[in-house]
Write a structure and sequence with these properties.
The chain is mostly helical and 182 residues long. The chain has two domains: 1-110, Orthogonal Bundle (Rna Polymerase Sigma Factor, Chain: A), CATH 1.10.1740; 124-182, Winged helix-like DNA-binding domain superfamily/Winged helix DNA-binding domain (Arc Repressor Mutant, subunit A, Orthogonal Bundle), CATH 1.10.10. The chain contains seven helices and no strands.
């Protein structure tokens, strides 16, 4: 039975790694590309970061935030790349790179809070506004196509979307204390 338990733990750890890396990847990618200008080199460094995260994930303290840990790995991999580059590109000093890494972590945490708040706020909308949002942002329909489908004027759809966005912004502000300034 302990073999089954160990296999379940390993599966759960792999699953948790996949979820966390998928969430972290966009920030890691933007960070690396802001430091390494050659696209192929940046992709190689991102791959190195993914490998390092995967190889060391079992040692990560699950009770802590993962983004600072991943961004620390990313920072070290970027520094390693810059040191090894035959034609070093202009770069920031280590203190500045640390601050940039921390800024990306902060942005990721804030955007995660906003996504969670947005999901809750959207779930509170009535059926018709949710449907209009779905048509516009998930199905990427034009305003005129939405108007035609719902038998409304384009102006009515513009007004409806404006009101929906205002309601969502107000709801998100209340839930996150992040001001949108709309």
């Amino acid at each position: 039975m302990s073999t089954d338990n160990t296999q379940d733990q390993a599966r759960n750890l792999k699953r948790e790694l996949a979820i966390r890396w998928t969430r972290a990847y966009p920030m890691v990618s933007v960070y690396v590309r802001s430091m390494i200008f050659k696209l192929h080199d940046a992709e190689d460094v991102i791959q190195d970061i993914a490998v390092a995260v995967a190889e060391n994930f079992d040692q990560f303290d699950q009770s802590r935030e993962i983004m600072p840990w991943i961004m620390g790995i990313a920072r070290h991999k970027v520094v390693d790349y810059i040191r090894a580059a035959a034609n070093p590109q202009p770069t920031f000093d280590s203190h500045t790179m640390q601050q940039i890494s921390e800024a990306f972590t902060s942005i990721e945490n804030e955007s995660g809070d906003m996504r969670e708040a947005l999901d809750k706020c959207i779930s509170r909308l009535k059926k018709r506004p949710r449907h209009v949002l779905e048509l516009r942002y998930l199905r990427e329909m034009t305003i005129s196509d939405i108007a035609e489908r719902l038998d409304l004027s384009s102006n009515a759809i513009y007004v409806m979307l404006h009101r929906i966005r205002s309601v969502l912004a107000e709801c998100i502000e209340k839930k996150t204390s992040i001001e949108w300034g709309l």
